[in-house]
Amino acid sequence: MHNFLLIERNFVKRQSILWWAVIFVLSLLPTIYAQVPGVVSVIGEVKAIDGTANQMVVRADSGVLFNVTLSDKTQYLRVAPGETSLAKATKITLADVGAGDRVLARGRGSAEQKTVPALQVVVMSKADLAKKQEQERAEWRRRGVSGIVASLNPSTQEITVSSRTMAGAPQSVIIPVTEKVMMRRYPPDTIPKYSEARPSKFEEVKVGDQLRALGDKTADGTHLTAEEVVFGTFKIAGGTVTAIDAAANQIKINDLQTKKPLTIILKPETVLRRFPEGGMFGGGGMGPGGPGAANGAGQGQGQAQQRPQGAGAGGAQGAGPGRGGMNMADMLERLPVISINDLKVGDMIIMSSLQGADPSQLTAISLVTGIEPLLTIMAARQQTGGQTGRPQGVDLNGSFGGMFGGVGVP
Q1: In the predicted model, what is the mean pLDDT of residues 87-108?
Q2: Is 334 in contact with 287 (CB distance < 8 Å)?
Q3: In the 3-class helix/strand/coil scheme, how is 342-396 assigned residue by residue?
Q4: What is the set of domains in the chain, with CATH numbers?
């Protein structure tokens, strides 16, 4: 969406006809569209095309479906992902547009009636977007760090991020924030998507936030010169399942720490996984060839699909700021994927969510069931003098923050 908005803003620089200049002025911000009769523009994903009827259904980024009507006067242009102007756009035809493509359609119509008689359709193809996203993910795996915000230094504008390896040892990296760093934040009550993270600043970061940064590390790995930082205020919750409503995609638990009832909402993008019986440290080892190792693409609600853009650290990209040892994100990403029908009353689960307005209700980004063996191990590490720990005593955010279903990448 960001690229299309920049294209909108740069569009007028290449137009000599006053009418197009007016279109540009009126379409700078989506909120203006509804205030100006006759001018409408929509950015979103193509859901269906009927070439015979000269119509296209576009789902806007807001989720609203628009009917885009086409004519012989409609101009079709293709731009590569990442372009912020039409300088390198190529002319195409309706036959070159397909379902799943990203489009900017604009013309004179009615936002209330959700119709756009398009004079121009700017297209970013699904294949080009997928290719660019994979390139960006590879870059974040190679040059990214992730973890939980351990401390903030307002005087030096520095963020210290910490993560844990499987050995339980915390590893930290210091990230200075300068005016050159792109800061973005995930909004609350959502399944986080990298493309929907909003512009932010250092002052909005809080201790306990999950954060991922892209940049260059120092030789000793203790500092990172960041180009981009994306973060969010996530909550890690856990407890025993008391009820399951598969039709409504909801489960209820008794919260492990507050002891209060908690409703967990499962979206199509939510990834459910199961911790193996016997744990990953016994006979059910989960090394590179273990169960789920080949299943890098998650399965939300039992439907085969890619892991949502913000749900989980994802293999090597969750390697954390330091070096040495598989961290929690790597381990959890290898677990086998299940559906809500595989959950049982009495299961112990942990899950991640972006905090919202209602503390008694959370939308799950990622959820793992059968987790009691791991919680027992984590609790034991928090004890002193060789005492046996109890799952109820685990600091979930401290143990799993930044590692379990948190900040994603493109």
Answers
A1: 92
A2: no
A3: HCCCCCEEEEEEECCCCCCEEEEEEEEECCHHHHHHHHHHHCCCCCCCCHHHCCH
A4: 2-126 (2.40.50.140), 144-232 (2.40.50), 235-400 (no CATH)
Kind of pairing, strands 261-274 and 361-369? parallel
Instruction: Give the span between the Cα atoms of 304 and 298, in whole angstroms.
Output: 7
What are residue 343's phi and psi, to 5 degrees? -80, 150
How many Å apart are CA 234 and CA 336, to the nearest integer? 23
- Give yes or no for residue 13 having a pLDDT over 50: no
Q: What HEC string does 240-257 produce?
A: EEEEEECCCCEEEEEECC
Are the C-beta atoms of residues 187 and 407 closer than 8 Å to each other? no
β-sheet with 198-199: strand ranges across:
170-176, 158-164, 144-153, 210-217, 224-232, 182-185, 198-199
pLDDT tens by residue, 276-325: 876 554 443 333 333 333 333 333 444 333 443 443 333 333 344 444 44
CA dist., res. 321 & res. 316, Å (int): 11
Q: For the whole model, what pTM was predicted?
A: 0.61
Q: Distance between CA 299 and CA 305 in Å, rounded?
A: 5
Q: In angstroms, how far is the first alpha carbon of the chain from the final one?
A: 13
Count of CB atoms situated within 10 Å of the CB of 68? 26
Rg of the chain (C-alpha set): 23
> Where are the strands (E) in 154-260, listed by range?
158-164, 170-176, 182-185, 198-199, 210-217, 224-232, 234-245, 250-255
Phi (first) and psi of residue 18, to 5 degrees: -60, -35
Q: Which residue has the tokens 């294209």?
A: 7
Residue pair 190/407 in contact by the 8 Å Cβ criterion: no
Determine the Cα angle at 99 with ends 95 and 101, to 5°.
90
Amino acid (one-letter) located at 360: S
The residue among 162, 165, 160, 90 whose CA lies nearest residue 122 is 90
The residue assigned the tokens 């209820």 is 252
pLDDT tens-digit profile of 140-173?
Answer: 888 988 888 999 999 999 999 987 655 556 789 9
Residue with tokens 């963020």: 159
**SS3 for 331?**
helix
- Locate 109 and state its tokens: 């119509």
